[in-house]
Design goal:
Blueprint: H1 3-23, H2 28-31, E1 32-40, E2 43-50, E3 54-57, E4 62-65, E5 70-76, E6 81-84, E7 90-94, E8 97-106, E9 113-120, E10 122-124, E11 133-140, E12 155-157
Antiparallel strand pairs: 1-2, 2-8, 3-7, 3-10, 4-9, 5-8, 6-7, 9-11, 11-12
């Protein structure tokens, strides 16, 4: 068998294995299932159920108010887990589940809704990382959802980063 033919066979097998690997990855919305609750008029609870074999980066979370008169004043994160990459870098990550409390500062008590932009990024243990996810939430701050499990938001998938 010629060297060129062996090269193309090896390359073809490699490409097929990459395609099979990609076929087994969950879509981002299944790997990182998102939920939110309005705890009080100035506190939100954002939650992610993270599929087995996947994780979210601590430093990739970003929360921004798109509503004039409301700003994100604080984000309270739980303890994270340390992950070492194959190149030796150290990252803080979350597996299984993470709850993040967002504290809001309102300039007026008359503001009952917030447009909140949520950005996060995760990876699969297989070595594949997803593009950052962006969600725009419209949250009704006047209606709290402590125990009933109802969501008080509308999620809109924004275009991916370029």
């Amino acid at each position: 068998m010629s060297l060129i033919l062996r090269y193309f066979i090896t390359l073809s097998l490699f490409l097929v294995s990459l395609q099979n690997e990609a076929d087994t990855l969950l879509p981002s919305k299944e790997a990182f299932q998102f939920n939110s609750q309005v705890k009080e008029g100035n506190r939100l609870l954002l939650s992610w159920d993270i599929a087995n074999g996947y994780y979210l980066y601590l430093k990739k979370f970003k929360f921004s108010s798109l509503t004039p008169g409301i700003m994100v004043s604080n984000s309270l994160f739980p303890p994270s887990e340390i992950k070492k990459s194959h190149v030796g870098s150290v990252e803080e990550i979350y597996r299984n589940h993470v709850d993040i409390e967002i504290q809001l500062q309102k300039q007026s008590t008359n503001i009952d809704n917030i447009n909140l932009e949520v950005i996060y990024q995760g990876c699969a243990d297989k070595g594949v990382c997803y593009m950052p996810d962006r969600k725009a939430l419209l949250l009704d701050l006047a209606h709290h959802s402590f125990n009933d499990g109802r969501l008080a938001y509308y999620a809109v998938n924004l275009p991916k980063f370029k």
